[in-house]
Amino acid sequence: MGRTPRWTIPLATLTTLTLAVTIGAATAADATPSGIPSTSTAQAQLDALTVAPQGSTSGYSRDLFPHWITISGSCNTRETVLQRDGTSVVTDASCAAVSGSWYSPFDGATWYAASDVDIDHLVPLAEAWRSGANTWTTSRRQAFANDLTRPQLIAVTDDVNQAKGDQDPATWQPSVYSYRCTYAKMWIAVKYHWSLTAQASEAGALQTMLDTCTT
């Protein structure tokens, strides 16, 4: 907690970059998750969400949402998102990111070590459980936990992700105010696609965030 982002690349990292670039490299063309709807679409999706009291976490376990799964070759979901959301990401033969940079839109920090970055489940697994995923099959929960088609997975500062925990937008929002519009649209899109419910305070917070959108 309270670490200062590293804004310069240390010599050791530059050396690693030189050595690893011959092993494999992936440069992100777009560090934004796919499937973020327009404001008008997000509004329609928010209006269509079922508003209901939040369910219980009874029986919940992260193990009921298997992740990270293999996506391609030796790359799992975490490694795939690190490559997608990073800039000039270099990977080794096992697909582990050995260098690159990652901008965390939640807090505006930039990091130069993959270990400083978490892959956030935008709609937390426990939140999904309380919103209807408790009735899903394990295979459906696995698909949710590794969803690269909707804006459900994003690389962010690890401490920020841990502080967010399993909170919904009624109690946690990105500190970068200008990102709250996007955050709301992402959250709405995920809940809408996966037919998850929203409690009244959550829906109200999403509407307030959506009202900040200028486009």
UniProtKB/TrEMBL annotation:
<dbReference type="InterPro" id="IPR011089">
    <property type="entry name" value="GmrSD_C"/>
</dbReference>
<keyword id="KW-0732">Signal</keyword>
<protein>
    <submittedName>
        <fullName>Uncharacterized protein DUF1524</fullName>
    </submittedName>
</protein>
<feature type="domain" description="GmrSD restriction endonucleases C-terminal">
    <location>
        <begin position="114"/>
        <end position="206"/>
    </location>
</feature>
<dbReference type="Pfam" id="PF07510">
    <property type="entry name" value="GmrSD_C"/>
</dbReference>
<feature type="signal peptide">
    <location>
        <begin position="1"/>
        <end position="28"/>
    </location>
</feature>
